Amino acid sequence: MISGQQQGTVSTKELAYITDSLKNEELLAKIAAQGVAESQNPQLKQKLAQIAQDRLQNTDQLLRTLQQQTQTTH
User: Is the C-alpha dihedral spanning 19, 17, 32, 55 positive or negative?
Assistant: First the structure.
């Protein structure tokens, strides 16, 4: 635990990292979805669709975790 920081709180640096991670996950999902729309290869379309779904699930999981953390600390 960092001195001066309460257990369970998110620092400004951690919040910036989380924000960047969410933006990156969203960008990856959009790029994969664009690939699905533009690809003619069924296997590639399937793989890109799975990547897009996985990225969105990661984003949802991170947001749920943050919401739970916020609820337990407030």
Answer: negative
d(CA 6, CA 8): 6
Q: What pLDDT, on the 0 to 100 scale, is given for residue 65?
A: 82
Length of the chain: 74
* Chain position carrying tokens 């690939």: 35
Structure-token pair, residue 37: 């729309």
Q: What is the pLDDT of residue 16?
A: 86
In the predicted model, residues of the chain with pLDDT beneath 70 are 1-8, 72-74
Residue 59's alpha-carbon distances to 6, 11, 36, 38, 50, in angstroms, are: 25, 19, 20, 24, 14
